[in-house]
Amino acid sequence: MELKIKKLNSNAILPEYKTSQSAGMDLYSTEDAILKSGEIKLIPTGLSLEIENGYEAQIRPRSGLALKGITVANSPGTIDSDYRGEIKIILINLSKEEFKVNMGDRVAQLILSKVEQAIIKETDELNSTQRGVGGFGSTGMK
Q1: Model confidence pLDDT, tens digit, residues 11-39
Q2: Which of 51, 55, 115, 118 has the fewest CB atoms within 10 Å around its CB?
Q3: Could you give the domains of the chain?
Q4: pTM of the model
């Protein structure tokens, strides 16, 4: 699959796979930012994508940052194939310490995923299952 990427400013860094078998491409910040404890901030990447129809791009946290309490607030974030605006990362600082994002830092990862759109069919009845309407915790803890 070909992913077309447009740089929107001179600070933008093209995403890249760090190893030959990486599922996600690293995304980089184009600005310096400070995230105070508990703060949510929009971090620009300076990139716009052209994703093939039938696919989405998912924005996910980087595990190294998540271990420090820095994660993507809407994980996974979805970028639809018809969106052409700038990709921005919604970072949240869940740690007790202030966190500095530097221009050029890796802040998230992008994963391409195939999607299908369902045909919606309203009905009065659904097939029954063993679980039924059991919700949160209904299948037990172990």
Answers
A1: 999 999 999 999 999 999 999 999 999 99
A2: 118
A3: 4-114 (2.70.40.10)
A4: 0.88
